[in-house]
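Lecture 7 notes: from sequence to structure.

We start with a single chain of 430 residues. Read the sequence below before looking at the structure.
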Amino acid sequence: STVGARSRPMASTTLLTPIAGFTVKTYKNAAAAYERGGKVFVNICGSDIVERAQGTTGIKIDDDHLDNRGLSNLQIPLLVGPARAMEDSSGNPAIAVDVVYHPSLVSRALNGTPQHPAKHFIGYLVDLALKNVEEDMGVKIEKELSKVKILPNCRYKGPAGQNSNNTFGFEVVNREQPPEPPRDPSKPKIEVIGEMPAKPKAKKPVKPIIRKGFFDKPNALEDDKELYPEGSAEGIPEPGRGNSVNMLPDNIKNKCHIVDTGAMDSNSLMETMKQYADTGRINPTQKGVYAKGEGPKADKPEIGIGHPEFYKKKAEEDKKWNPEKKTKEEPAAPAVSESLFKFVGQQEEPKYRIDDTVAKGAEALAIVVELPKIERMSQLHLDMVETQLQVRGGPYRLKVALPKKINVEGVTAKFISKKKELKVVAPIEY
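Now the structure, written as tokens:
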């Protein structure tokens, strides 16, 4: 992720006069955003004194990298100037603060590049500037990018509050640490102090696991008892464990519905899968389908086609098969009562809209879906791939092709119960 990094201090005290870029208007104390006297004007400026953006290894990024790959995964040096009291256009008290970047970033925020629009750079620079201004001022300000405003006809808010290209200079002081004293060449580079010899660890006596002569002497056990006087039950399954479904742990069978695909023909399997995909429910009366806490009975288990006993039973039936004798018709599956299931009514496609937004300093898509018949998030199923969004829940089914490729790992979603809307924010993948 892109982070802000304060620029390295200069070699001496310097008067920094930044180059005007653009101005962002925000407010102190987000809860009382529109009270008089709460405006904060943040001037995004440029200066060669501030270092260029850097990669994760500290290498400075050139213009070609910025034009083609933007600001993703870069460290961005910046300087925050002193807060200055001023008046806004209505005569109310306000504050102006300069945040200075390298000119290569400010120029691209104003003009963009062929591969990245200006709002890509604006989102990163404004997000970092607001966080650093809040930290330096020690006052909470509104940082939500959708609520702050970029002044369209203003490049800089001066000390008197006027819109002007004449910027305010401020001093930047170097705080260098004193250099280390030179090393005495007569002393060794590495000096070992007080090295103590390691004490050898005492070995603990190890008791033999099997006494000598255990396998050679039939009466070597204590009291001359046999190892398994009544025989061993090792490897013998418990009653009712002969079926593959019953081999599952009880805690899984008690929490999950189970479908034994080996006990079903292909048509029944496809029908069961389609039913669950459409309704989220299964038919426990169908062969091979078990509700929570149930399973095949020990006296009459249902054996799937993957079970070894199936092939043994089939081989015995093949020996007795008579081609002249008509095979018995397979009994029809029991009718399913409609009361066993609660089907949802006719499917509907909800209304939705897709807007461009900025999330965590990066371009993103905001997808808002209107769901007036949904009460909570747990009623919804959301699936997203890089170019598609699917929502289902209650009577709603929605499948939308996204206009841009997104980063699935950064997707966030929330259900606004008052508006009965699902809002999904997906960062754009570059």
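Helices lie at 63-69, 103-111, 118-137, 250-255, 266-279, 308-320. Keep this in mind for problem set 3.
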